[in-house]
Amino acid sequence: MIILTDKILENVIKKRPLHSYKGTYGRIVVIGGNPNYGGAVIMNALASVYGGAGLVTVATDPSNFTALHAHLPEAMVTDYHDTTQLQILIKNADVVLLGSGLGEDDTAYHVLQDTLAAVTLNQTLIIDGSALSLIALHHFPLPNTHVILTPHQMEWQRLSQIKIDDQSLERNQSALQQLFPDAVLVLKQYHTQIYHQQQVMSLTIGGPHQATGGMGDTLAGIIASFVAQFHSAKLVDCVGAAVYTHSAIADELSITQYVTLPTQISMALPIFMKKHAN
Ligand SMILES: NC(=O)C1=CN([C@@H]2O[C@H](COP(=O)(O)OP(=O)(O)OC[C@H]3O[C@@H](n4cnc5c(N)ncnc54)[C@H](O)[C@@H]3O)[C@@H](O)[C@H]2O)[C@@H](O)CC1
Ligand SMILES: Nc1ncnc2c1ncn2[C@@H]1O[C@H](COP(=O)(O)OP(=O)(O)O)[C@@H](O)[C@H]1O
Ligand SMILES: [Mg+2]
């Protein structure tokens, strides 16, 4: 098992070439946020934009449009009920982040089904939150593309059938091999672990100051932005660097703060990344 340190950032966070533009840094489509969980996609998108993604579009319930724009005018929006528009957006995306705050009703089911059918070989699909629970419930197969799963321990229990107390490294590795052999698994907990084929990375930073709703939505957005822009690094290293960055920023904030809010972590991304770019 590899312990994640700031070394991982060296391989991933690069100074930007002068001859570049927003297209160089990736197109992300964020899909989720029902009328009750609009905050989840706002936090996905804040993390993606502050993490450096070139273009971010959010497909969500229209009741979330105004709130999203008030927080983040850099993001574009579309109605996730509009299947044709959703398919066009997905076709042109580099990274699709699916499921934060999606809920588990009929609309969520159809959005999930349409998205899984629309992603193609060279894209990266990050699956979070409700989409993980729906996939577990309905046994949806994963599409043939690069997949990153970001469950917390209960979502992983639903997917793997391994009870939280029984989630050992060996059992997790073997369930991943059996169920989703090509996927990267980010198993979120105190000391999050990343599994990919035979490789396991573990986080040893971060703490309970991070225990606020939206912390995972923010991590998913950071992962999306790193995958979208850092093309010279391996996918699993982009994920490792994003997981490390998320908790390193939180730990820095926790020197003076009792809790470290998800949106504050996103705001701190540009300064942290500037410090670590090489
Ligand atoms: N502001 C918002 O709109 C928010 C929306 N959210 C969305 O709400 C939906 C439901 O997600 P939830 O995670 O709240 O509900 P879930 O029902 O998926 O998971 C919560 C359950 O898991 C258990 N659990 C065990 N170990 C855990 C661990 N290590 N971390 C977290 N939970 C653990 C909890 O005790 C609880 O019973 C998701 O789509 C999520 O993205 C959440 O992200 C919270 C914030
Ligand atoms: N005690 C803790 N120590 C370290 N990290 C924590 C702790 N509690 C929560 N986190 C982190 O916060 C995030 C929670 O993810 P998740 O439950 O999906 O949040 P949400 O769905 O509310 O956005 C994960 O990255 C997890 O590792
Ligand atoms: Mg979550």
From TrEMBL:
UniProt name for this protein: ADP-dependent (S)-NAD(P)H-hydrate dehydratase
Organism in which the protein naturally occurs: Leuconostoc fallax
Catalysed reactions, semicolon-separated: (6S)-NADHX + ADP = AMP + phosphate + NADH + H(+); (6S)-NADPHX + ADP = AMP + phosphate + NADPH + H(+)
Keyword Transcription set for record: no
Cofactors named for this entry: Mg(2+)
Family: Belongs to the NnrD/CARKD family.
Domain YjeF C-terminal: 5-276
Broad class of enzyme this protein falls into: lyase
Gene name of this polypeptide: nnrD
Function description: Catalyzes the dehydration of the S-form of NAD(P)HX at the expense of ADP, which is converted to AMP. Together with NAD(P)HX epimerase, which catalyzes the epimerization of the S- and R-forms, the enzyme allows the repair of both epimers of NAD(P)HX, a damaged form of NAD(P)H that is a result of enzymatic or heat-dependent hydration.
Molecular functions (GO terms): ADP-dependent NAD(P)H-hydrate dehydratase activity; ATP binding; NAD(P)HX epimerase activity
